[in-house]
Design brief:
Radius of gyration: 18 Å
Distance between the termini: 50 Å
Order of helices and strands: EHEHEHEHEHEHHEHH
CATH superfamily: NAD(P)-binding Rossmann-like Domain
Strand order of the largest sheet: 3-2-1-4-5-6-7
Largest sheet: 7 strands, parallel
Shape: globular
Low-confidence stretches: none
CATH architecture: 3-Layer(aba) Sandwich
Number of strands: 7
């Protein structure tokens, strides 16, 4: 598929959540550079407006701004309705929005932990459901859900975050299989440590001690994830080093993973 400028365009219209910063911003930029029209979603409408103007000027694409807090049911419903539209179909949904918290679970605000589940898991579930109906009806479309390699391990100090990402991994694998033969594909991306505003917003401890090679850029996560979606893969782990890590630790028993992650958290704190 090509656009009016002759660029190779894999998706005519893509909706990206969490598009105002970090990996979501990188997804939007990668897709716009290919000529995809966009619907960008995030809480910060002003940042979305700036992004939309920049991408339209640079690439000549249409960018629809849809400010929404995905932790709020009414705002989330507006995004669901946009995805469910048959008149303005979305060919690719990128469920990227999410946040983390850091601290001992019983000492943290349970309301904030509940909101984390709302955004990281429930919103992703509902938006996926809204997108898949029209996609399956027309026999084409893609969904990309952004999890984390943290979803493969218990994360003491970020228990809720790890649990939500584990949900995204299991949910994605199951729905990928349900869609087999439908012409629609769901892919789950599991990035490792990525340089964005995420760590600062989540107040994560110990990141300063991570070596430089542990960090990914938002652009490489976005590009490798989109390539995996287009190939119809169930899971994508961006970067060879993280692919090797996840493969090497897959046979480790759960109790040992728990002990290792707990000791690592003790060192970080």
């Amino acid at each position: 598929m090509t656009d009016g400028a002759g660029r190779a365009r894999r998706w005519r219209t893509a909706l990206v959540t969490g598009a105002s910063s970090g990996i979501g911003d990188a997804f939007a930029r990668c897709l716009a550079a290919e000529g995809s029209d966009l619907v960008v979603v995030a809480r910060d409408g002003e940042r979305l407006d700036v992004l939309a103007e920049e991408l339209t000027a640079a690439h000549g694409v249409s960018v629809e701004v849809l400010p929404a807090d995905l932790g709020a049911p009414v705002a989330r419903h507006a995004v669901e309705q946009r995805l469910a539209s048959r008149d303005r179909p979305v060919d690719l949904l990128v469920n990227n929005a999410g946040f983390g918290t850091n601290g001992t679970f019983h000492e943290m605000s349970v309301d904030r932990e509940e909101q984390e589940v709302q955004v990281n898991a429930l919103a992703l579930l509902r938006l996926t459901h809204a997108a898949l109906g029209p996609m399956v009806a027309r026999g084409s479309g893609h969904v990309l859900n952004v999890a984390s390699i943290g979803g493969l391990y218990p994360i003491p100090g970020s228990a809720t975050y790890g649990a939500t990402k584990a949900f995204v991994c299991s949910f994605g694998d199951a729905v990928h299989e349900e869609l087999r033969g439908s012409g629609v594909h769901l892919t789950t991306s599991l990035p490792g440590f990525t340089r964005t505003e995420f760590q600062e917003r989540s107040h994560w401890e110990g990141q300063e001690g991570l070596p430089g090679f542990a960090w990914l850029t938002a652009e490489e996560v976005a590009r490798q994830s989109l390539d995996g979606v287009w190939a119809g893969r169930a899971r994508v782990v961006p970067a060879r080093r993280y692919q090797l890590l996840t493969a090497a630790t897959a046979p480790v028993p759960p109790f040992l993973k728990r002990l290792i992650m707990g000791r690592a958290q003790d060192v970080a704190w």
